[in-house]
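re: that chain from earlier
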Amino acid sequence: MTVAVASTAIPGATATKKKVNFANLGVGAAMNMFEVTTLGQPFEVIKTHLAANRQDNMATAFKKIYQRGGIAGFYQGMIPWAWIEASTKGAVLIFAAGEIEYVALNSGISPFAAGLVGGMGGGLAQAYTTMGFCTFMKTVEITRHKATGPNVSTFAVASEIFKREGIRGINKGVNAVAVRQCTNWGSRLGLSRLAEETIRKFRGSESSHLPLTAWEKIAASAIGGGLSIWNQPIEVIRVEMQSQLKTAGRPEKMTIANCARWIWQTNGLKGFYRGSVPRFGLGMWQTICMVAGGDALKKFVNEKYAKH
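^ sequence. v structure.
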């Protein structure tokens, strides 16, 4: 999802900057909405369930999620929180990461390094501008039922948390979200660009300068997204900090440090990697949508507006 305003880097070429307009920013929102409404939210629900209920296996997770609402159970937290989050964070990422990558590429660093820096900056911008509250409420929706019951509306739950804990309460875990987003998109964009460079090298010198095909972009994005699950411990900590499940001995006021200690004490090292399989799928799908799909849609939009 790097190039909202910087074109995909081809080694030896100068990055070109395109005019930033509302249509360009809308690409990020559109692709993020598509991603979350299709496979994104089911992957998110399964991943979050396993990270919060670390004693469950995949089969048990599927069974419990289905019991909570059938097929709709796999889309818990999508309306309104995931949609609000997707429609804003995509635009923030596509703008911030693209601007940063453009500057980085023209400073002379490699496409891999530029993608890494752009992704990290875009991920941080997402976390602190649009994601804190929505990510927290998505996790609340997925984990709250044992504590508050399914008949309490999501807005009532949000209101109660705000009355009880204020702004800090509804943004609980935002620093963990920031670390996750920074490492997520730094890895996804950086590794995707590295995969693109590798594909060009395999093509040979005669065609290395040509743009990647759609399938090559999808393959590079899938590689970048899939390999980026190395930071799963950060995601498990984030889920635990935002979870509404009550367990004896669990710290009331969670920080990243005492949350990590709690996970280690209760589940050991393997606890930090619960939910890795669905997150692998989620990472691939998000990166395909936001990098390969985002690049293709941005190209279409830019070419269309260039004619007017």
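The longest helix spans residues 111-143.
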